[in-house]
Amino acid sequence: MLAISGRGEEARSASAALDEMTQIAVHPVGRAAAAEARGASTDDPDAATAALREAIESWEAAGRPLNAIRAGVLLSWRLRDGEPALAAAVLETAAATADRLDVPHLAVAARAAIGS
């Protein structure tokens, strides 16, 4: 959330600390959280995309689909300037997952972001 609020340096610092802690952790939730933090805080677009894709897969594997939706929204933000069609597809996938899970407010928010 630090990266979203424009606190990039704090986000990178928190991400590095989380990444260091998860080097010894094998729990899928820890790995997913670390990947999401890396993806949200890095300045490298390719590294961000790779980390956020890893986060989505890890959240799903851990049985945490709502977290995967959040990581998908972050991924779409990273993709929207360079690959707007792919960003929209990622958001639609997040919205469809929210529909399937009966979380309509997330589906509405994801679909609203497609047009922005």
Characteristic key phrases:
globular; 116 residues; mainly alpha
SS field, number of helical segments: 6
Return the structural class: mainly alpha
Low-confidence stretches: none
Quaternary status: single chain
- Tally of discrete structural domains: 1
Helical fraction equals over 70%
How would you characterize the largest beta sheet? none
- Label the overall shape: globular
What's the total number of strands? 0
Mean pLDDT, nearest integer? 85
Rg on CA atoms, Å: 14 Å
Give, in order, the helices and strands.
HHHHHH
**Terminal-residue CA separation:** 20 Å
Beta fraction of the residues?
Answer: under 5%
Q: What this model shows, in words?
A:
This protein has helices spanning 8-22, 28-41, 45-61, 65-79, 84-100, 104-114. The longest helix is centred in the middle third of the chain and has 17 residues, at 45-61. Helices cover 77% and strands 0% of the residues. Helix 3 packs antiparallel against helix 4 (65-79) and helix 4 (65-79) packs antiparallel against helix 5 (84-100). The mean pLDDT is 85. It has one domain. It is mainly α and 116 residues long.
In short:
With 116 residues, this protein is an all-alpha fold. It has 6 helices and no strands.
